[in-house]
Design a protein that fits this description.
Blueprint (H helix, E strand, L loop, with lengths): L28 E4 L3 H12 L3 H15 L4 E8 L21 E6 L1
Antiparallel strand pairs: 1-2, 2-3
Length: 105
Amino acid sequence: MKDNRTYQYLFWDGLYSFPAEHYQYQSGFYVKREQYVSFLQTKLAHIGLTDREINDFIVYWLPVMNNHNNCFVHFRINDNIGGSSILETKPVAERVIRVFMEFSG
């Protein structure tokens, strides 16, 4: 509100040191490089992102993922991940879909 601008959505990334048990995934996906785009398009649409949000997500993350021939991908949706990423907006956002993608090559 301070800059009198309107934003379609909020994006951030960061580093956080989680305890070892955080990485004991119960679900996830093994994806080959040639499937990254179609995989992300399908999964992010299923999560509920708009085409624009999906495109922006892929534009940001694909170059990083492309450093690997294969990736293990795990999503956390609308999770504050043990208090590491609490979100509060004022005014309250009309729609909130929080997508946390963790991946390793």
